[in-house]
Amino acid sequence: MVGSVTPDDLDLAEVLRFANRPARLPEGLRWDVLALYAGVLDGLRAAGPVASVGIDGWAVDYGLLDADGHLLGPPAHYRDARTEGVAARARRTVPAERLYARTGVQDAPFNTLHQLLAARDSAQFTAARRLLLVPDLITYWLTGEAGTEVTNASTTQLLDPRTGRWAADVAEAFGIDLGLFAPFRHPGDPAGTLLPHVREHLGRADPVPVTTVASHDTASAVVAVPARDGERFAYICTGTWSLVGLELDAPVLTAASRAANFTNELGLDGTVRYLRNITGLWLLQECMRAWAEDDVGALLREAAAVPGLRSVVDASDPAFLPPGRMPERIADACRSTGQPVPSTRGETTRCVLDSLALAHRRAVEEAQRLADHPVDVVYVVGGAARNALLCRLTADACGLPVVAGPAEAAALGNVLVQARAHGLVGDRAAMRGLVARTQPLRRYEPSGDGAAWDAAARRVAGRTRP
Ligand code: LFR
């Protein structure tokens, strides 16, 4: 994505899109990170003479380097089964209450901490001298300089969200050597310049700066939430996941917050992204993969034509995390909760969208209550901003207006942080103002039919949650 930024204008153009296809090896589900890097290089070449480069990506996963700085094999996928049962064992080392009080991170199987505990006896881990989170790994290949970007580091479950430094006592209790991590970098910091062989590939003679952005994609997306200064808002960052929450000045580390499995991740300028991970459009992506269907528009039209709220599943249930057999698993969840089993693709799609809207509602309500931070509007950014049905259902379910857009929020947030580092835009409010003035947004008013959503919420709460 190439962004152009002036104090009055913000424009984003897609120059290259490539698939991110993990591969199942005998040892487990792995990311094809070389294909990703090759795609990045092709994209940079297609982008032409840019003034700065910034890398963001998904959280928690990492590559391990040996003493020579060489990658020790493909990074494990956070959906890999190697972390099964690890969280429960880890709680015997550090009780859940203390771990949450120190790190503020949700209890999820894929947290970096759990992945490290699952991997630590492997030959690969024994040989490892450096750990780089995936966007930091790509940045390292581009520049030769290793760093640990702090918004992404906040998802490891090894960081203290109050200080933005490592929770050294937690790492020590688990026997994790924090020396594996490179020094911290903050959004806006220089991250080096493109290495000579990269420049040669791009046909650039001049040094090209790489700028640290909020390298966790969700942190970048929150930067581009087009909220007005002083507005009381929640956001939903959509894509494979729905990340639903608030931007706060300080973490919420209470017992109630832990019980509700909210996470405190760091955002730009020391803000806290207080949010819940909801399985998100992964449910639909996996159905589409099972059906060998790539026309989401057709499915959404079918879903809009079938009656709503017939069956709902718990979209934040970790049972939906692994890949495979998604239509059957959704059908099973409906059956086991005594609800009608969706029988057509349209019905299954509708079940997914209704369930997501309901999960959005629950997270928006609980976040406000747990953080004592009421909101007046919900911003939907990311891919689902283009999904009018899901936006409408989310507005109806939340009983709040939804403002949808931009769909490419993560890329815009990435570009804006680079632009700020290069003196082109001002503070967070100025960045958001620029997004609001320049990007197409659509507003959905709630229909007022709260009772049907209340009833559906009771169905999910009563039957599919422990
Ligand atoms: C979204 C995201 C989420 C994170 C998940 C796994 O792309 O980064 O924020 O929880 O992927 O890394």
Automatic annotation (TrEMBL):
<dbReference type="GO" id="GO:0008993">
    <property type="term" value="F:rhamnulokinase activity"/>
</dbReference>
<dbReference type="Pfam" id="PF00370">
    <property type="entry name" value="FGGY_N"/>
</dbReference>
<keyword id="KW-0418">Kinase</keyword>
<dbReference type="InterPro" id="IPR018484">
    <property type="entry name" value="FGGY_N"/>
</dbReference>
<feature type="compositionally biased region" description="Low complexity">
    <location>
        <begin position="448"/>
        <end position="459"/>
    </location>
</feature>
<keyword id="KW-0684">Rhamnose metabolism</keyword>
<keyword id="KW-0067">ATP-binding</keyword>
<feature type="region of interest" description="Disordered">
    <location>
        <begin position="445"/>
        <end position="466"/>
    </location>
</feature>
<dbReference type="InterPro" id="IPR013449">
    <property type="entry name" value="Rhamnulokinase"/>
</dbReference>
<keyword id="KW-0859">Xylose metabolism</keyword>
<dbReference type="InterPro" id="IPR043129">
    <property type="entry name" value="ATPase_NBD"/>
</dbReference>
<dbReference type="InterPro" id="IPR018485">
    <property type="entry name" value="FGGY_C"/>
</dbReference>
<keyword id="KW-0547">Nucleotide-binding</keyword>
<keyword id="KW-0119">Carbohydrate metabolism</keyword>
<dbReference type="Pfam" id="PF02782">
    <property type="entry name" value="FGGY_C"/>
</dbReference>
<dbReference type="GO" id="GO:0042732">
    <property type="term" value="P:D-xylose metabolic process"/>
</dbReference>
<dbReference type="GO" id="GO:0019301">
    <property type="term" value="P:rhamnose catabolic process"/>
</dbReference>
<dbReference type="GO" id="GO:0005524">
    <property type="term" value="F:ATP binding"/>
</dbReference>
<keyword id="KW-0808">Transferase</keyword>
<feature type="domain" description="Carbohydrate kinase FGGY C-terminal">
    <location>
        <begin position="234"/>
        <end position="421"/>
    </location>
</feature>
<feature type="domain" description="Carbohydrate kinase FGGY N-terminal">
    <location>
        <begin position="50"/>
        <end position="223"/>
    </location>
</feature>
<protein>
    <submittedName>
        <fullName>Carbohydrate kinase</fullName>
    </submittedName>
</protein>
<dbReference type="InterPro" id="IPR050406">
    <property type="entry name" value="FGGY_Carb_Kinase"/>
</dbReference>
<comment type="similarity">
    <text>Belongs to the FGGY kinase family.</text>
</comment>
